[in-house]
Amino acid sequence: MSEDTHPSTHPPLPPTTEDDRISWLRLLRSRRVGPSTFYRLIAENGTVSAALDALPELARASGAKDYAPCPAGVAEAELAAARAVGARMVTIGDASYPAQLAETADAPPLLWMMGNISALSRPMIALVGARNASSLGLRMARALAKELAEAGYVVVSGLARGIDTAAHTAACETGTIAVLASGVDVIYPAENARLGDDLLAKGLRLSEQPMGLVPQARHFPSRNRIISGMAQAVVVVEAAAKSGSLITARTALDQGREVVAVPGHPFDARASGCNMLIRDGATLVRNAADVIEALPAATPHPIEETAPELPLSSHPEPPQPDTTQPDATQAVPPPDTRSLRETAKLHSQILHRDILQRLGPTPLAEDQLIRDLSAPAAAVAPVLTDLELDGRIIRHPGGLVSRSA
């Protein structure tokens, strides 16, 4: 069963009954069935139920042995888990399904959503970038997201560390959409749990993955195509030459979306991907006005104060362990016990790492670095001295510091 392109411009009719929803889940969660195969099976068999009946024979014809569709009990359990956390199933063809995403060839047949569905009614711009972003990169992401949100756009990103977190945080008050590689009820990384809950008031969390799924590396490229597919344009802020953000940018181009990039210092590896995109024809952007100017002609909708249309669950019940994951039943090791000296040394090592991560070849004001680190100046100053003596950073006139090339 190969993954062909969606053969029809007419999406299947959305499910209207509980049995229909179970059938959709069973077909989509069956082994070797992805979005393209899902659409092809329905196009060839007419209905989801007929496709389920035909699936075992098709699998045998393609060489699969002992093949059986996803059991009904698994689909029923997923629906029950969704109800427990207030998530809603939105299928392609439904009025609430993101219109831009529905136009893509491999659009997810269904999405789980939590939050305020009115966010989907406004134009969207994706903002992606490095997880290990510099201080300048994070400031740029915050500024772009805030300005785009104030202009009436919904910022879409992936709730990852770094640029994604900065973008969601800056746009949270007006509505932002987080597309997850995990189940919609599993926030990854865990440090963004509060942000993931806060954005539900005016924005959304959504995912195509099963409820309770803990993400693995293979799930992120699939997530990225949803981020770019939902948006009119993708803004890349700090991306290495080989990174997930570059995958998102290439997918966006394949989907016919605008790709724009923030330039960076040539010596900073975190900016090499952005500089490559600009070299290859992506629009260089310095602020939100440049992003909006690069868009196809469209008028953003004004931000309206509307009540959430999807159930909220700020503190959902934890999902049941997924026993199919090899690490699902591993015991949590007891906490380490450290002396005060060991703890102080560990904090110093963490601060060393964080400072080097925030700095790049472009000089940054020392006081700005301290604010970005949210650390006491008395703790940062000796670490900067150590790094300067080690040749890892360079001090410049005017209280500026940069990372050594």
How would you sum up this structure in a few lines?
The protein is α/β, with parallel strands linked by helices. The chain contains 15 helices and twelve strands.
Description:
The structure is a single chain. With 405 residues, the chain is of the alpha/beta class. Helices cover 40% and strands 12% of the residues. It has 15 helices and twelve strands. The chain has helices at 18-28, 35-45, 48-61, 72-85, 99-102, 135-150, 163-171, 193-198, 219-230, 244-254, 272-279, 288-294, 340-358, 366-373, 377-389, and strands spanning 88-91, 110-115, 124-129, 154-157, 176-179, 204-207, 233-237, 258-262, 283-284, 364-365, 393-396, 400-403. A nine-stranded mixed beta sheet has the order 1-2-6-5-4-3-7-8-9, with helices on both faces. A three-stranded antiparallel beta sheet has the order 10-12-11. Strand 11 (393-396) and strand 12 form a beta hairpin. Helix 6 packs parallel to helix 7 (163-171). Residues 1-9 and 304-344 have low confidence and may be disordered.
List descriptors.
405 residues, 12 strands, alpha/beta, 9-stranded mixed β-sheet, single chain, 3-stranded antiparallel β-sheet
Contiguous helical run count = 15
Query: Got a strand count?
Result: 12
User: Tell me about the biggest sheet?
Assistant: 9 strands, mixed
Overall average pLDDT: 84
The shape, in one word, is: elongated
Strand order across the biggest sheet? 1-2-6-5-4-3-7-8-9
Helix % is 40-55%
Radius of gyration: 23 Å
Category by helix and strand content:
alpha/beta
Strand composition percent = 5-15%
Spell out the helices and strands N to C. HHHHEHEEHEHEHEHEHEHEHHEHHEE
Q: Kindly report how far apart the N and C termini lie.
A: 50 Å
Spans of at least 5 consecutive residues whose pLDDT stays below 50 are: 1-9, 304-344
